[in-house]
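hey m, so remember when u said the tokens were messed up on ur end? i reran from scratch. heres the input so u can diff it against urs
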Amino acid sequence: MEIIRVENLRYVYKSSSGDKVALDDINFSINDGEFVAIIGTNGSGKSTLAKHFNALLLPTTGKIFIDGLDTSDEKNLWAVRENVGMVFQNPDSEIVAAIVEDDVAFGLENLGIEPNKIRERVDLALDAVNMSDYKKFAPSKLSGGQKQRIAIAGVIAMGTKIIVFDEPTAMLDPMGRREIMQMVKRLHTQGKTIIYITHFMEEAAEAQRVFVMESGQIIRDDTPREIFTDVKEMRRLGFDIPVAAELADRLRKKNFKLPPKILTADELVEALK
């Protein structure tokens, strides 16, 4: 069942120095429960697109529908933002309270949820991100990965159907990135619709679909296997290539007879056997 539909989306940033087209005639739909990764170089329009999903930005022309609601219609704004939660790359910019549990409760308080239900939702959300032991901590005492988990807990507590991650691991070390990806995959298995923007190709390879953006347009929409085993195109776009796909490509050039479209280390090991 379709939960997001984008029709002829165009967005123009206006300034005194001249207009800049950030998104140009974008069309796609996403089904309820899908996991979609979005990749592209800086300036390709990824973050601008992300901000349209919960109406932080509104189309210059075109339409976006979230669960059937037109984001451009002001009367839908509240319902759209109840449906779509966002996690950004810098958790420090998302934390607003001096105590972890108060920060997770912030969105619920703004929705006017009853205090006893807020407590229940906060506890469940902190448990979901393995941060229950830190609920009385000051966020300033936490690591970057822990802060990002708190930001995710705030979205979980809101009960949104769709979670948009805008480069959530960009400021984390490799261990922190792995923890966040494990959490994202767990949320997907629980039925959440995930939109995941990243510069890390191994992360994007975990999705069901990958959108490749260039110059404000989606130039490819396909499975991770089709996208990331097209080594020539990935190099043209300036992207890193998942290690197994890169190694398989090099081995083929040395006359190893390997099957096409190897994406994972396990597949490469099996092929080499």
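this time it looks ok to me. Residues 2-224 form a domain with the Rossmann fold fold (CATH 3.40.50.300). if urs says something different then somethings off w ur setup not the seq
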